Amino acid sequence: MIEIRFHGRGGQGAVLASEILARAAIMEGANASAFPFFGVERKGSPVTAFCRIDDRPIRLHTGIYEPDHVVVLDQALIQLTDVLTGLKDDGTVLVNSPHDPEDLGLSTDCKIDTVDATSIALERRLGSKSSPIVNTAILGGFARQCEFVPIKAILDSIRYMAPIKKEENAKAALEAYNRWRE
Amino acid sequence: MIDALTANQAAAIAAKLARIEVAAVYPITPQTTISEMMAEMVSRGELDARFMLMESEHSAMSALIGASYVGARTFTATSSHGLALMHEVLMWASGVRRPIVMPVAARTIGGPWNIWGEHMDVITERDVGWMQFYCENNQEVLDTVLMAYKVSEDPSVMLPAMVVIDGFILTHTVDAVSVPEQHLVDEYLPSFNPDPVLNIDDPRRFGGLIMPDWWTEFRYRIALDMEGAKKRIQEADAEFGKIFGRNYGGLVENYRTDDADVVLVIAGSAAGTAKEVVDHLRDEGLRVGVARMRVFRPFPSEEIAELNSKDVIGVFDRSYTFGDGGAMFNEVRSAMHGSDNIIKNYVGGLGGRDVTAAHIEWIFRNMLDILDNGLDRKIEWVGLRDGSGRW
Lengths: 182, 391
Description:
The complex is a heterodimer of chains A (182) and B (391). With 182 residues, chain A is α/β, with parallel strands linked by helices. Chain A contains 6 helices and 6 strands, in the order βαβββαββαααα. In chain A, α2 (77-80) links the parallel β4 and β5 (92-96). In chain A, α4 (135-146) packs antiparallel against α5 (151-161). Chain A starts with a strand and ends with a helix. Chain B is of the alpha/beta class and 391 residues long. In chain B, α10 (270-283) packs across α13. Chain B has a 6-stranded mixed β-sheet, sandwiched between helices. A 4-stranded mixed β-sheet of chain B has the order 5-7-6-12. A 3-stranded parallel β-sheet of chain B has the order 3-2-4, with helices on both faces. Chain B is globular and about 70 Å long. Chain B folds into 2 domains: 2-244, Thiamin diphosphate (ThDP)-binding fold, Pyr/PP domains (Rossmann fold, 3-Layer(aba) Sandwich), CATH 3.40.50; 252-381, 3-Layer(aba) Sandwich (Rossmann fold). Chain B contains 13 helices and 15 strands. Chain B has helices spanning 7-17, 32-43, 57-70, 80-85, 87-95, 120-124, 138-152, 182-188, 212-244, 270-283, 301-305, 327-335, 357-373, and strands at 2-6, 22-25, 50-53, 74-75, 101-106, 131-134, 161-166, 174-178, 252-255, 262-266, 288-293, 295-297, 312-317, 342-347, 379-381. In chain B, α7 (138-152) links the parallel β6 (131-134) and β7 (161-166). Chain A binds chain B through residues 18-19, 22-23, 26-27, 31-36, 38, 57-63, 65, and chain B through 2-4, 116-117, 136-137, 166, 168-170, 172-176, 269-270, 272-273, 275-276, 352, 354-357. β2 of chain A pairs antiparallel with β8 of chain B, so a sheet runs across the interface.
């Protein structure tokens, strides 16, 4: 079983990102579940969402405490919350940031990557200038980083689930996938 | 077709597949997305039904009683305070034998405010003459709504049913759900054709005053038919399996109980987590199992009595009713009366607190300890912050 935790802010689309990923996995023939941390929704406040992917039906109906992968939609959250909590030793971290991974101030031996999802979202006019919707772009990066859900499935899932600008959102994910720097 | 759906979406799609004719709703968290989806389906013309947004849950249930009298297949959904506000009308619905099916997003009842999941709202309504189905996952929610109509509308039953969906844990979680084809659902669930119906061309009186010389017989008939519903539920489950290729074991689903020394009786989504823990402990050679209480009304007395041979039985209550232990615990203990096994009550998962695999593993190890050393205490509140609070 693969367990993923998303950190975002209310309004960035972290919950929808977890659902898009689960849907992509399900359409690829896997089993998956996605759920938010059931808190009180406020725009701008820290949000956590989760996704489980497995070959077998998902029977666990409990939170994820030791994720394999962490995806951070807002770099500033690194100062606010411990995004590395419980992350497995061989886990990965993906952060939406224009900077290099070593400049993020994260102390972990896990593999860290960055993708500039904000710039991509702004170029595609997803959300507003002050609060771009970065969830689809970062999913493209995540597809590249972890390679267990094909980018095509992610793009199809985005087209199905994005409430507006379906093609623009899919293109944002594809750009993040193609612009990947090792 | 496999889809990625929340349990609330699964419930609404099931209502559409059941070709419900009247939906009367009032929104409340965490049920609201069911009502919203019903409204969307009707407004888009995908569902040929009358959708009514009422001024309260009390009115929603009242409207459905009237609609059901006319012969409509009826649907609503609620939760928590909404269910509590329906209380007296719930008793009307069962008393006048209307087969209404209602998903309930199980949640706390305040105060103080808490919008999260537990079973207190539905457990509180265990005595109102409704059947109660507790679902483990989103697939079971979809399937159980269909089964509930099948059983409720059976002329030998004619009682309403609640389909219990753990608030947020299922209602707001996306999972893989196989959506059955309409023609198969039509084959499984024929249209609702009650007789007699409310009809101005053929006037009759429904729900009138029953004098003391007949009231006891009215109540006795409900009791008899609720008992008879047990067989109908087993049949509906078996027939569902034949048509759709999956079923759920009737009223109680036994998971690895055959050679188990200790068995945990548990309802709802936490049963899935418990099954995972059972597999994990079985790998260690520990003989543990789960009896998932799928149906609490009618109460599965026979299935529970079959667990008499187990040395230790734990009963997990996701609510607390301030009796001599929780409600499920008391009824299980009652059904086992006369057997010499040990029964213990575990209370947890209240107000949205996660029931973790660690909690359940702790429960199984506690039961195994009781197997060797005898009962430590009758009631255990699991996962309390300071680790105390048991007696």
